[in-house]
Amino acid sequence: MDQTATAAPIRGQDTLHPDGQYSAVAKVFHWVTVPLMGLALATGLTIRFIGEEAKMAFYALHESMGLIILALALARLGWRLASPPPGLPGHLPPAMRRVAGGVHHGLYAALVAQPLLGFFTTNAYGFPQQGATAFLGFIDLPKFMAANETLALVLHWMHSLLGWALLPLIGAHVAGAIYH
Questions:
Q1: Beta partners for 78?
Q2: Which phi and psi angles does 135 have, rounded to 5°?
Q3: CB neighbours of 174 closer than 8 A, spacing ≥ 6?
Q4: What is the tens place of the pLDDT at every residue in 130-169?
């Protein structure tokens, strides 16, 4: 008996996508996250060079993008659990499968951890998202901790290191997408 006739179809499989493809909702999550990540990274890498008169606006934009990315990442993970993507193609060598899985897991972890670290950092510095740095410029978020400079410095370094680690993760993700 022919096994291929009874196998379940692969989601999104067609002539252009013989190994299947992500759902339309997953694609929207991805392509909404991409420019937000670009904006968050660009503002994060340039804030220290911005003059004092515009610095608070940059912080507000950077922090707001981070919290939107966090919300999207959590919704995206929920969608991924409810609607799993197609598996990696069977023809990929085991090492490539591990790298692809590691990059995806690293990106998802960073999409959640990075905004949380940033939010905790600003609170530990004593600057919650209120007033000049309110979420989206007008929504004050509650302060949830007292200022603690030692904790703020540790969180800031963690946030900065993870920000720099995102660059090679994104590079590997783009390179993998181009390769495939």
A1: none
A2: -60, 125
A3: none
A4: 888 888 888 888 888 999 999 999 999 999 999 999 999 9
